[in-house]
Amino acid sequence: MTNNIPVVKVGVVAVSRDCFPAPLAVNRRKAVVAAYEEKFGKDDIYECPITIVESEIDMVNALEDVKKAGCNALCIYLGNFGPEISETLLAKHFDGPVMFCAAAEEGKNTLGIEGRGDAYCGMLNASYNLAIRNTKAWIPEYPVGDAKDCAEMIHEFLPVARVRLGLDGLKIISFGPRPQNFLACNAPIRQLYNLNVEIEEESELDLFEAYEKHYCPEKYDIPADVLEKQNARIADTKADMMKELGIEAATMTDAQSAMLDKFAAYEVTLLDWVDEHLGYRKYVALTTKCWPAFEDMFRFVPCFVNSRLTGRGIPVSCEVDIYGTLSEYIGWCVSQEPVTLLDINNSVPKDMFEEEIKGKFNYDWKHTDTFMGFHCGNTCSSHLSNPHIGYQKIMANTHPKEWCDGTMEGDIAPGQITFYRLQSTADADLRAYAAEGEVLPVATRSFGSIGVFAIPEMGRFYRYELIENHYPHHGAVMFGHYGKSLYDALKFIGVCPEKIGFNHPAGNLYKTENPWGTI
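Predicted structure:
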């Protein structure tokens, strides 16, 4: 778990129309909260004791009550038809994400005047009033249910609310500019502001100066007390790195010690920069420029440190990929687990597919369903098989090998994944894609943080969604199937549903797909 994403607390407010019995809404609300607490516990939910009955004053009182209880998200629960004016005023004035759901009728013997609530009807008027007030609310796929159903809906709202609250408090700190000949990471920032995300763009030179003050502080006039605390933190960070890598002090070589000194100083540099520059925002994500000058000046690569911070909930994207780190942050909010950023990198050789994949899994994978996801070494060790420190072999073609130490390497652990990205395109259009699949338990025989990925109908998705819509080669990865929550969250933060791509099943053509195609 991390403190870099919001903790959501949902206030549940029941609403009741004055010509319906208010106790019906109250008792149904109590049943919903009880069902939620029984299955999911009490930490995420608060039952507001004030029921809104056709009264703007009730609305104000309920609003003050949920604020006082520390709620940062709201569930407006139609216990019956509901008062469309005051319930939507509550949604309008609540400073945070809001959802609506409604009570189903309990049974065939409760359809009299005292037992029928007509919330099925009231939900329609609620949605209409939300629209005319220009007020956004999350409404579940089927928003009418019994107590257990509505408890599930509230729980499904949590990742949606985390994403919205997270972006509302997020600052991206970017060290650039992006590498030359790397236009794919162009990042029009207008859409960041539309998403209510702040960005601070700094230079690689600023970062290098800050690093030197940590790694070789004797060159600078640093107060003794500050230096003592800084050195202690660097030593603690080095010890933690040794523990992660399984390096014992008694057997550590001088070269390993010198390498970890650099890594530890760099990690503390980034964390200090965050502390000094976060400003009024609550959460942070980073980007760094990791080549080609980084190796020349820092004499290592930042991948291992990036992997550690991302594993702790602070995404650090490679190659100044601003929308990549934003995507990773969204994934952390959705899954509450470490994520990664990978190149959609290379094809799986046909002999590997024929010998190690074809016909060997429950799903009948095609060769075009598979690809390798790779980055030089930024995936957190908890998601790697046999994680170990390596060197950036690609950069070592143009730099001394010893300047390229610092990749976190290993095959990505097999299991379910969601591959996705949120992107502002070259013309500042906000788009996204998501596809569920898996990492296969197939040895890559390669280097870096890398895995053999399989996504149903990936070949068509690659051609008619990713290439057709001009996505860059970086994609974010959540380790699990989170497509439904991600899709809901993307819609809620303002991505047009028609611009959220997904891997179409066979027979469901993309708009520009050749109906006589052969993929």
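Summary: The longest helix spans residues 254-277.
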